[in-house]
Amino acid sequence: MTSLLVRSAAAPADDGLLLEVTPESAGWRYVGFEVLRLARGRHAERRTEGREVCAVLLSGRADVTFAGREWPDVGRRDSVFDGLPHSVYAPPGDLLTVAATSEVAEVALCWAPARQGVDPVLISPEDVLVSTRGSGGTEREIHDVLMESRPAESLLITEVLTPAGNWSSFPPHKHDTDDLPREAYLEETYYHRTKRAGPPIGPHPALPREGGGSGFAVQLVYTDDRSLDAAVGVRDGDVVLVPRGYHPVAAGPGYDLYYLNVMAGPVRRWQVTFDPKHAWQQ
């Protein structure tokens, strides 16, 4: 079985790449994911070809161009814990360029197969739908970047901020069966970041990436028959692959948790089934 954990490099490659998940490396069909860290004046280029992509500014600022369209100096947050993201969606068939305009820019490239996609667009923080899900020990903040409320062909993207010690993606749910309207098949990546907790979630420095930082979380990935039953220790910058099964997350005490979810499948629907043992906690 493909490992469910993909670690970020401590330092970027010459082209800025920190981490890459492809359908081939993950052993699935739909979701691709990259994280880039670019110094000021450096840029990255990607041809979208038979895929659509959403470039999410994790931190810093960048000029983004695609098919003659230009979005200058996109982004405004210092870390993923400092407010809402700017993102740029691009359809198949042309060249996407991201060039850092701040001292450092970190960018997530979220990929999925597409035939035509939709028109390229800047998704500003004002376009991001914010909600609170859960209560008490399961409360977390949701940032819908590219969910069903916005058009795309395949991609579904959201950010989640989970306070220290809380559970998230809870009650446990799954989306590994193509059985609409009950459930949609979606592959998913969880890109995790951590920081020292402070009241409330807000502008606190992210933990250093070098050496993986000291924050941690735990993600479970399991099926009803336990043919898949994993507890994955997560550090700052790690990605967890969710090919199937339920997948709740617990933030470690003392460390707030951010994660960026990228999902795609044969139908663009977020339709899930809750673990019947825990569904009473919805």
List the helices and strands and how they pair.
Layout: E1 5-6, E2 17-21, H1 23-26, E3 32-39, E4 43-47, E5 51-59, E6 62-66, E7 69-74, E8 87-90, E9 95-100, E10 104-113, E11 121-123, E12 129-133, E13 140-146, E14 156-162, E15 167-168, E16 173-174, E17 187-196, E18 216-222, E19 229-235, E20 239-242, E21 249-251, E22 255-264, E23 273-274
Antiparallel strand pairs: 1-20, 2-3, 3-10, 4-9, 5-8, 5-10, 6-7, 6-9, 8-11, 12-13, 13-14, 14-22, 15-21, 16-23, 17-20, 17-22, 18-19, 18-21
Using brief descriptors, characterize the structure shown.
282 residues; mainly beta; Jelly Rolls; 7-stranded antiparallel sheet; 6-stranded antiparallel sheet; 1 helix; 23 strands; 1% helix; 46% strand
Account of the 3D structure:
With 282 residues, the protein is mainly β. The protein has a single domain, classed as Jelly Rolls (Sandwich), CATH 2.60.120. Helices cover 1% and strands 46% of the residues. The protein has one helix at residues 23-26; strands at 5-6, 17-21, 32-39, 43-47, 51-59, 62-66, 69-74, 87-90, 95-100, 104-113, 121-123, 129-133, 140-146, 156-162, 167-168, 173-174, 187-196, 216-222, 229-235, 239-242, 249-251, 255-264, 273-274. Strands 1-20-17-22-14-13-12 form a seven-stranded antiparallel beta sheet, with no helix packed on it. A hairpin with a 2-residue loop joins β6 (62-66) and β7. The longest helix is centred in the first third of the chain and has 4 residues, at 23-26. It is globular and about 50 Å long. Residues 201-213 have low confidence and may be disordered.
